Amino acid sequence: MTDLAALVDELDRASSTWLDPRANDSATLRQLLPTAASLWPTAWDRTGPGDEVVLFPLLYTKRPQITTASFHHLIDAACEAERGGGRVLLVSVPTSRHGPDPKAGHTVRRIAQVFAAHGLPVSASGDVSELTGAAHLVARACTMGCTRRAVDVPDLLTAAAADALGATAVVLNHGLVPGRNLHTLPLIAPLSRLHDPGNPFAEPPPEAKKPPAGSDALWSSAFTLALTGAADPSQDRQAYVAALGRRTGPLWHQLRRDQLTGHYAAPAPNEPLRIRADDHPLGNPVNVPLFGAPAISDSTRLLVAAAALAGPVTLVIDDLTPRFSYRTYPAGEARARYQRLAADHGGQARFLTDLPDLHDRIENALGTLTHGALRTAAGPRSSRRRGALTGYDAVHLAVMGVCCTTGTDPGTTVAVKPANLGQLRVFSTLGPPARLLTCTGTGDIATGELHVPAHWITRTPGVHL
């Protein structure tokens, strides 16, 4: 077995475990991993004060419906609330310019009744527009112009509902991205993220990441219902999938019979491209750390194109973690794709598996980054009552820490998506602080908005925007 194969095998074994949520925040990731458990102990389940109100926002464009994603998310929210001695409060939230559906409140009450009839603590408060004093706010929010409509409207209206109803936490249901309003509230992150749009009991596609790196809706709901405790979904899968079908199959069939299921049509993204680089000298090199997925997403291509406007780019590719995150990983084909992407922008690509001291770098990251840093990087998921952080989270953070600090000197610029800024900041213990360049939106690179230092306006020989 080669050194690389041995490292992949070691990290793969460490990934399929649960980290002890009771560990001290000052403990290093290296100290946490030996105490991790392959089965979640019930002693790790956290209880609450008994009066919690967990708000579950059901976003809709035409009328509220239960999608395959919100089906699993609502089951999870009910279980998390029940562990805290509380309940889930279901509220529908309109997101389109058409505003609220007059029958929305009646619909969510029917949905809540079905879940409650199947033993889950769910009740409803109708539509957010029905809350005291909220009708005018909803009408104005739905029709106002937004630069980030898909984020800003749900964020504002969900936060308003949480305040009006005295919610103690808000579930990040499918389609809800926390903006400036929700960031100030306690949030609950569901375990499952990838869902078949037509069948909540479908197996994940073969090209998806393996849990716990990826998302498996069946394992996630079985885990939150305590039908399995395994971090590795392959353990006893046939038994817990069958048990899940018996427990939640009648619930889904009742929702379908009552015509309460459907597909969520998210508002079309209209966010203009925005590039922000507050302290990057125009023309200086830019590093772009990337997870080496087999296929390159449009958002990744946009980030690289934005970084190339600021200076010569170097893509630093984590091609280690994907080797045990996917069922199969065509390493050679993936490498060629990232090399072409770098070449398309006049840059170069560096791969972690080419580093001769990769094992030592990962060990240093595991021995330096702490449980507190991991909780910060993971966000709301780290506060779950059951199923918080996994060994994969620790391994992935350490590997990305190596990725983000490879080839960086004091003052190096690193380009990331804003969603990854929290993770990047925890890497300050691994290397010198970096200048930051971020890219948001889905617009055209040629017509994007630039938020850059004024000296960029001065033409520099050999540099062209």
| Average of the residue pLDDT scores | 90
Q: Uncertain regions: pLDDT < 50 for 5+ in a row?
A: 461-465
Radius of gyration: 23 Å
Structural class: alpha/beta
H and E string = HHEHEHEHHEEHHEEHEHHEHHHEHEE
What's the helix count? 15
* Largest sheet features: 7 strands, mixed
Question: What is the count of β-strands?
Answer: 12
- Report, as a whole number of angstroms, the end-to-end distance: 49 Å
Instruction: Indicate the proportion of strand residues.
Output: 5-15%
What gross morphology would you assign?
globular
* Share in helix: 25-40%
Strand order of the largest sheet: 9-8-7-10-11-6-12
Features:
single chain, 465 residues, alpha/beta, seven-stranded mixed β-sheet, five-stranded parallel β-sheet, 15 helices, 12 strands, 13% strand, globular, disordered C terminus
Structural account:
It contains 15 helices and twelve strands. By secondary structure, the protein is of the alpha/beta class. The protein has helices spanning 3-15, 29-32, 68-83, 104-117, 135-143, 149-165, 217-224, 237-257, 298-310, 322-325, 331-344, 358-368, 371-378, 391-405, 421-425, and strands at residues 53-60, 87-94, 122-127, 169-171, 187-188, 274-276, 286-291, 313-318, 348-351, 413-416, 435-440, 449-451. Helix 9 links the parallel strand 7 (286-291) and strand 8. The strands form two sheets. The chain has a seven-stranded mixed beta sheet with strand order 9-8-7-10-11-6-12, sandwiched between helices.
